[in-house]
Amino acid sequence: MKEKLGDNCLMKAQPHIDSRVNALRTKYFALAEMRGPKCSGFGWNDVNKSITCDDDVWDNWVKSHPTATGLRNKSFPYYDELDYMYGKDRATGRGAENPADAIENITLNEQEH
Predict the structure, then answer these.
(1) How far apart are CA 37 and CA 28, in angstroms?
(2) 65: closest CA among 94, 38, 93?
(3) More confident position, 36 or 105
């Protein structure tokens, strides 16, 4: 590409690529949160790959989650691929144990061996 554009082209692709990847990642996490088990009132249109909800639900959500602005009814055809890439990127609490559970598990493990 450098041969095609010559040395006069000073544009660097990496910052632009990084910016786009970060924007997609931010949008994915906003969508994933709305689709998650802790949120109610949101639906998912699997044909269009978009979030659906009533106006009042959306208005209240966007007030406290500004990164979601503009995502309602917007198609994300690559949501499944982004979910594959980023889906395990945040802690969910699954598999976590409190101190009492940890002690019980250690005791059970010691009794088995």
Answers:
(1) 16
(2) 38
(3) 36
Q: CB of 69 within 8 A of CB of 62?
A: yes
C-alpha–C-alpha distance, residues 93 and 14, integer Å: 34
- What is the SS3 string spanning the chain? CHHHHCCCCCCCHHHHHHHHHHHHHHHHHHHHHHHCCCCCCEEEECCCCEEEECHHHHHHHHHHCHHHCCCECCCCCCHHHHHHHHCCCCCCCCCCCCHHHHHHHHHHHHHHC
Q: What residues contact residue 17 under an 8 Å CB cut-off, 6+ apart?
A: none
Tell me the pTM: 0.64
Q: Tokens 């450098």 identify what position?
A: 2
User: Is the pLDDT at 8 greater than 90, yes or no?
Assistant: no
Using the predicted structure, report yes or no on whether residue 6 has a pLDDT greater than 70: no
Distance CA 113, CA 98 (A): 23
For the stretch 32-65, pLDDT in tens is: 999 988 888 999 999 999 999 999 999 999 999 9
